Amino acid sequence: MALIAPSLLSADFTRLTEVADMLNQSEADWFHLDVMDGLFVPNITFGMPVIAQLRKLSKKTFDVHLMIVQPERYIDEFRNAGADVLTVHYEASTHLHRTLSAIRKAGMKSGVAINPHTPVDLLQDVIAEVDVVCVMSVNPGFGGQKFIENTYRKIEKLCAIRSDAGLNFLIEVDGGVHAKNALKLLQTGVDVLVAGNFIFSSPEPLKTILELKRLI
Predict the structure, then answer these.
(1) Choosing from 29, 63, 131, 174, which is the catalytic residue?
(2) Which among 29, 34, 63, 131 is annotated as catalytic?
(3) Residues annotated in the binding site for substrate, as ranges?
(4) Angle, to 10 degrees, between the axis of helix 48-55 and the axis of helix 16-25?
(5) In 170-209, which positions are buried (b, 16+ CB within 10 angstroms) versus exposed (e)?
(6) What is the pLDDT of residue 132?
(7) Which of 23, 125, 145, 171 is most buried (most C-beta within 10 Å)?
(8) pLDDT digit string (tens) for 61-85?
(9) What is the pLDDT of residues 147-175, one digit of tens each?
(10) How far is CA 132 from CA 1, 21, 120, in A?
C-alpha cells in the first residue's frame, strides 16, 4: 500500500494547527515539509522553527525536503526540530555521500532528491546510503505545476537499480500528483506519493487522501 505524504507547501499557513489536526485524523502517513532558501530554488518557505512547532502537533513521520544550498550545515538542527526523513538534493550537495551518511548517523532516514533534468544513473555511487529517493516530477520551487511525463521512465530505471542492487529504498514522487496519474505512478513502482495542491484544494481533503491511500 502506498504511503501518502501531503505537502504543506499548498496548505493555508494561517491555519496550520487546523491543517495538522486534519492530517492527524486522515489516512496520510507522512507530513511532507518543503524547506526553500530562495537560492537553490526561486522561493522561500519556512525553516526549523515552524517544523519544531508542527512537531508538537503530530506524531506522524516528518518528511523534510531541503531545497537549499549546502544542506549539510543544518543536519543536526533539522533533527532537533523533528525531522524523521531528511532529503537533500543531488544538485545541491558537493559531498553527497558524506551528507547522506551524516543524516543516518544523526538518527534520521536519508533521502536524496533529483530534479527533472537529472538522470537517475548519477545516484549509483551513493544509492547504498539512501533510504528514500525523491523524484521531482515538476521543477522545484512552487506548488501546482504540471506533471512531467518523463518521470515514469525515471521511476522504471530506479526500480531496476533497486532490484539489481538488492536494496529496499523507497521511491517517492513529488509534484503534479493527482487522481489521473497516481495509480499509474504506483503501478510503475512508486512507494510514496507527495501531493499538495490536489489535497489542499479539495473540498474534502480527508476523502481525497483516503482515495489516494486505497488506490492499491
Answers:
(1) 174
(2) 34
(3) 7, 65, 141-144, 174-176
(4) 50
(5) bbbbbbbbeeebbeebbebbbbbbbbbbbbbeeeebeebb
(6) 98
(7) 23
(8) 999 999 999 999 999 999 999 999 9
(9) 899 999 999 999 999 999 999 999 999 98
(10) 16, 26, 13
| Residues of each annotated binding site for a divalent metal cation | 32, 34, 65, 174
The pLDDT > 90 percentage for the chain reads 91
Report d(CA 51, CA 67) in Å as an integer. 15
Model confidence at 146, in pLDDT bands (50, 70, 90)?
A: confident
What are the structural domain ranges in the chain? 3-213
Q: Is 174 a catalytic residue?
A: yes
Q: What is the pTM of this model?
A: 0.96
Beta-strand runs (E) in the chain: 3-6, 30-36, 61-67, 85-89, 109-114, 132-136, 170-174, 192-195
The residue length of the chain stands at 216
- Whether residue 34 lies in the annotated active site: yes
**∠ at Cα 17 (13, 20), nearest 5°?**
95
Q: Is the pLDDT of residue 39 over 80?
A: yes
Vertex 90 angle, CA 167 and 127, to 5° = 15
State the DSSP string of 71-92: GGGGHHHHHHHT-SEEEEEGGG
